[in-house]
Amino acid sequence: MPITLKLYAFLSDYLPADARRTNAVAIDVPEQTTVAALIATWALPPRLVHLVLLNGEFIPPPARAERALIAGDVLAIWPPIAGG
């Protein structure tokens, strides 16, 4: 099923080269894929996965293993960001 994966800041390095300019890639995932499973499939280091939004809704870490994706979802992920 089709979804859009968006990775921001240095996490965009995990995207295919042609998708890095837009920070987004359209992908197909199996039915019932969870947010946590997708993060693992893309080999995103857990300590770098900080803010996770599914269609603009924050998904806290404990809920990521239970939250299944559906066709058309947009999953956006940001690393921890420091600054001031």
Automatic annotation (TrEMBL):
Question: InterPro entries in the record, alphabetically?
Answer: Beta-grasp_dom_sf, Mopterin_synth/thiamin_S_b, ThiS/MoaD-like
Pfam families linked to this entry: ThiS (PF02597)
UniProt xrefs under SUPFAM superfamilies: MoaD/ThiS (SSF54285)
What protein name does the entry list?
Answer: MoaD/ThiS family protein
Q: Which organism is it from?
A: Candidatus Accumulibacter phosphatis
